[in-house]
Amino acid sequence: MSTSPIAQAPASLLPVDATAQRILRQRAELLARREEQGAEGESRFYIRFLLGNEPFGVPYQFLEEILPGAQPARVPGVPPFIAGVVNRRGDLITVLDLRHLFQAAPGERRDAGVLVVTAAGVTAGIYAPHIEGNTRYDPQTLLPPPPASGVSNPAHIAGVHEGRVTLLDMEALLGDPALRIDTG
């Protein structure tokens, strides 16, 4: 009576001759290369919001939470690019108003909220006067940001998606020493 393949040990099913093992190694290397290539061209998501009439995006990899309807409480004596603070389950989060960094018009406040993001070892909020939704993008297809006189620091921009949505470089933005307030 023969033993069914299911009852055999898995190792006994592997080919033992050198030619078959070489073919399996080549296939494994090919699959590994395809996986690496796929990782480079993979699409990702970003949350899209408006600053004035200009669409901006924050890649999901930096987004911790959306606080819909949250309105930052003003803090006296801070620079205009700080909208204030919000209470997030007992923690005060500093909220940036990017309209001042990108010279965006005030615009209408509908579906406003705060995007809680973490990058460069900092957790902060970004005031979003109007949250539109999310969109998929391929980082390899982002266009370089056009020269703009209203942008305080072009390094804050990762690129432009589909020629219209400015994707933010959260590491550069939250890591920028010019945006830190020394309280000590």
Structural descriptors:
184 residues; alpha+beta; OB fold (Dihydrolipoamide Acetyltransferase, E2P); 2 domains; five-stranded mixed sheet; 3 helices; 10 strands
Give a verbal description of the structure:
Mean pLDDT is 81; it is low at 34-39. This protein has three helices and ten strands. The longest helix has 23 residues, at 18-40. The protein is of the alpha+beta class. The protein starts with 9 loop residues before the first helix and ends in a 9-residue tail after the last helix. The protein has helices at 10-13, 18-40, 170-175; strands spanning 44-51, 54-59, 63-68, 82-88, 91-96, 113-119, 122-128, 130-137, 157-161, 165-168. The relative contact order is 0.17. It has two domains: 5-40; 44-179, CheA-289, Domain 4 (OB fold (Dihydrolipoamide Acetyltransferase, E2P)).
Using the alpha-carbon principal axes, give the shape: elongated
The main sheet comes to: 5 strands, mixed
Query: Can you identify the CATH superfamily of the largest domain?
Result: CheA-289, Domain 4
Overall average pLDDT: 81
Question: In angstroms, what is the radius of gyration?
Answer: 24 Å
